[in-house]
Amino acid sequence: MQIIKSSDINMSNVMYLVYGRPGTGKTHAVQFLPGKTVYIAIDGSERPLKDKNTDNLILIVLDQSDYLDIITSMDKVMMTIEQSLLGKVDNIVLDNISYLQELIVEQLSDKYKDQRQMWQFMQNYIKKIVTRFKSWNKRIYVTGWEVDYIDFDESHNQTTLFDLKLNASLRESIEGLFNVVGRAFIHKEQHLIQLTQSQRIAAKNQVDTRKYCLTEDLFTDKEWQPKSKTITGGNSNEN
Fold first, then answer.
1. CB atoms within 10 A of CB 197
2. How far apart, in whole angstroms, are the C-alpha atoms of residue 144 and residue 142?
3. Are the C-beta atoms of residues 111 and 55 closer than 8 Å to each other?
4. Cα dist. 205→19, 116, 133, 158 in Å?
5. Helix (H) or strand (E) holding 192
6. Which three-class secondary structure string do you get for 46-112?
7. Spatial distance between the Cα atoms of 78 and 75, rounded to a whole number of angstroms
């Protein structure tokens, strides 16, 4: 236990979760992480990082055989980081958590007769990974795909909501562990991240007061200011 002043709060171990459609810049943001980074490539999205930040970026890329037993492979990855890399880096990246869930469900679906047990195992396993990340006291950056679904507002009008593509129960608990949850999108050819909640978009920012930022500014305190009230890519009219 430690007794500290609020001014002594460690800001280098912030946990970021960014979701969005493919091509919205989630992986692109990795090269702007300050310090040395371990990047875990789950869905083969590492190509945008070729020749970027080469002195400070360590990539863990799964082979085809690793996907045959993704749980065992992830256990090996986590152990390798803890035993060989953790003391040498500042950041850990997992790209992406949505695809990791899909792989686990696909491999466990035939193992469990009771599908509820399978989903429970999957949820507990991914929670353990994120909790383990948190215990490392590093800056954590996790990406995921976006899902949109239909809901109804208080006036019973149909609306489309945007959130992380993950099992609903797991998503709620996972998002609660992160300091920043953002949605990556493209607005007028700019790659942006929405950092605060709106009626249609799940997001939160416990680090600063920014509502939006450019992808490359995610790990800074720079804010992006819209020039109009309508942000088409962000599906928001709040600014």
1. 14
2. 7
3. no
4. 14, 33, 19, 27
5. strand 190-194
6. CHHHCCCCCCCEEEEECCHHHHHHHHHHHHHHHHHHHHHHHHHCCEEEEECHHHHHHHHHHHHCCCC
7. 5
From the list 82, 101, 232, the residue with the least C-alpha distance to 164 is: 101
User: Whole-prediction pTM value?
Assistant: 0.89
SS3 content of the chain, % helix, strand, coil (to 5): 35, 25, 40
How far is 12 from 136, CA to CA, in rounded Å? 12
Record the tokens describing residue 173, joined without a space: 């608990």
DSSP 138: S
- Residue 226 contacts residue 239 (beta carbons within 8 Å): yes
What CA–CA distance (Å, rounded) separates 1 from 121?
32
CA distance 126 to 115: 17
Residues 6+ apart with CB under 8 A from 236: 194, 198, 200, 201
For 118-129, what is each residue's pLDDT tens digit?
899 999 999 999
Count Cβ atoms below 10 Å from residue 143 Cβ, excluding itself: 27
- Residue-wise pLDDT for 49-71, tens only, equals 887 777 899 999 999 999 999 99
